[in-house]
Amino acid sequence: MRILGFCGTQKRGNTKSASEWFLKESLKAAEEMGAETEVVRLINYRIEPCTACNKCLCGMKCPLLENPKDGVKEIFDKMCGADGFIFSSPVYAYQQPAVVMNFLHRTRPLHEQERSEIWGTTVTAYHTNPFRGKPVGNLSVGAALGMEGALYYLFHYLKAMGATSVACAGIALLDAEMKNICMVNGKFAIDHPGFKSLLDRPMPGYEENQAAIEMARAVGKAVVNAAKSEVFQTISEVLKY
User: Fold this and answer.
1) CB count, 10 Å around CB of 37?
2) Which of 22, 80, 83, 134 would be 227's cystine partner, CB 3.0–4.6 Å?
3) What would the pLDDT profile of 69-88 be if each residue is shown by its tens digit?
4) Is a pLDDT exceeding 70 seen at residue 50?
5) Strand ranges inside 8-58, DSSP E
6) Can you tell me the mean pLDDT for 3-18?
7) pTM for the complete prediction?
8) Among 88, 98, 104, 103, which Cα is nearest to 39's?
């Protein structure tokens, strides 16, 4: 059993990311149930934007997937060895961050494979659709509002590619993340007495939020349980033929 986690943070290097931290908590719970796990930090890959050339639909190779400098084929290859996926992202403008949206746009060849029998076309851009028939867990982490939109954004893509969302959690961190978004280089940076008095004070970090940790862990457990279930095991066997 192998679960692949997609980290949607836009932060680079060693900058702390709440959504990445909760993804790892979710994967820890999956590991405790016997699963192997791996994190794909999307911001660390070169993901060229889809050019809408339509070659994948017309049975031709995707020129971007043929580009050795582009990282999407490597990600697809990792996905082929997974039994389930977990997405975890911060909220950007009540939606998914650009790095996640860009990656999902590049899954068009996988989507076209799901439609190929209906259209009577042959899709050769990538040899399989690694999303098909697999369970997915979704985490969205924000300061307060917007988790609903970020989670909902994923559903259309996953359904189009034959995957099934089996668990979702929108985690509002309130005090901890509200303080975080008012910080620059580790210092409080909003010169407003109301905000300063409210947020520039000692408060628990997200690592101490037990309710949020339990939500993240529940998603990890749900994905493993679904992947092990008779339903998904049967789907897996059917798709082999």
Assistant:
1) 22
2) 83
3) 999 999 999 999 999 999 99
4) yes
5) 36-41
6) 91
7) 0.91
8) 88
pLDDT of the residue at 241 = 55
Which structure tokens are listed for 203?
A: 């408060």
Contacts 24+ apart (CB under 8 A), 176-181: 176/18, 176/203, 176/204, 176/205, 176/206, 176/209, 177/18, 177/141, 177/142, 177/143, 177/144, 177/206, 178/143, 178/144, 179/203, 180/18, 180/143, 181/143
CB atoms within 10 A of CB 43: 18
The residue whose two tokens read 């993901």 is 47
| 127: phi then psi, degrees, rounded to nearest 5 | -75, -15
Contact 39, 232 (CB under 8 A): no
State the pairing for strand pair 2-7/36-41.
parallel
Backbone angles phi, psi at 231, to 5 degrees: -60, -55
Contacts 24+ apart (CB under 8 A), 47-53: 47/71, 47/72, 47/99, 47/102, 47/103, 47/106, 48/72, 48/106, 49/102, 49/105, 49/106, 50/105, 50/106, 50/108
Phi, psi (deg, nearest 5) at residue 45: -110, 145
- 174-196 CB burial, b ≥16 within 10 A, e <16: ebbbbbeebeeeeeeeeeeeeee
Q: How many CB atoms lie within 10 A of CB 146?
A: 18
Nearest to 56 by CA among 104, 118, 122, 101: 122
